[in-house]
Amino acid sequence: EAEGMPKEAVLVRQVFSGSPAEKCGLKAGDLVVGVEGKELRRTGDQALARLNSLIDPEVGKDLRLKVRRGAETLDLTCRMEKAPEPRYFRAEDLGIQVQEVLSSTYWGMPTLYQRQGVIVAEVIRGTDAQKGIGQGDLVIELDGKPTPTVESFVKALEGLRQRKAEVALLKIWRGNRTAYAAVDLALGGIRNGGGA
Known about the structure:
By secondary structure, the chain is α+β, with helices and mostly antiparallel strands. It is 17% helix and 36% strand. The chain has helices spanning 20-23, 44-54, 103-108, 150-162, and strands at residues 10-11, 31-35, 38-39, 62-69, 72-79, 88-91, 96-100, 118-123, 138-142, 145-146, 167-174, 177-184, 189-195. Strands 6, 7, 8, 9, 10, 11, 12 and 13 form an eight-stranded antiparallel beta sheet that branches. Strands 1, 2, 3, 4 and 5 form a five-stranded antiparallel beta sheet that branches. The relative contact order is 0.12.
């Protein structure tokens, strides 16, 4: 708590590129103190809950925010937009389906903060992948290659397929730790795994 700063506020930790928040001028470090002319009148998690209860995410609607930035108080207007649809890729030989991480994904999964990878959207039923990979895991490397996008994941997998590799090594971010899984490409099954 900084001297002279409001306690009844929500700290903006990150603003995603191209988001409505960025377009209306919201910046990391800003303190949201009001929404639609209503003060938050809460602290901590209760302030965030109050903020969420005041936001009506109707596409095309303007949202008025009162923000403290240092000693300044600003009135910002953000236009709500439809969230982009994530791209998916189903890798039957790995036994998983992955999707790209959108800025809205980070909001619901704060442990992904500043990690780049593709999210395991589904572990295909009936595969041994269920033993070592979980829905919500973030695949940050495949075969030692970074996978910040679905395209990079597919490219790394294609390299494995072209080499006729028998095993794919996945580096995964799970919760607050890194884990590894070695997947048998012929079976879509886990050979071994572990955490670091």
